[in-house]
Amino acid sequence: MPITLADLQIEEADPQKFDVGAFDCADADLNEFLKVDCPRYKDQRLSHTKVAIYTGRVVGFIALLADSISLIDEERKWLIQRNVKVQQVPALKVGRLGVDKDFHHQGIGRALIQYSAQLGSAA
Hints:
This protein has helices spanning 28-43, 73-80, 108-122, and strands spanning 9-12, 48-54, 57-70, 88-99. By secondary structure, the protein is an alpha+beta fold.
């Protein structure tokens, strides 16, 4: 049975609160991001990382960044016809996403994307 967003506790990544030492998503770069770079990125306000907790264990994470999408002329034309004059639109970017290898293919990545989409639609 897949793990859904309702099954997860989503929290701000905090090495003081959540032990990420055992986390292994089978990608050394993503593991290092969560364990080493994540706190620095947070301090520098480069990204906001959320961890997914399942049965008391960190099973995944997602790093979110503010971004924008530059519009091509055809897209701007459509907006101008609706009295909206913009060159770019705000966007939420997924910078990093990792799921512990013991939990691959169980729905956690999908749940983290769903969580992020809900954040974007709340704005």
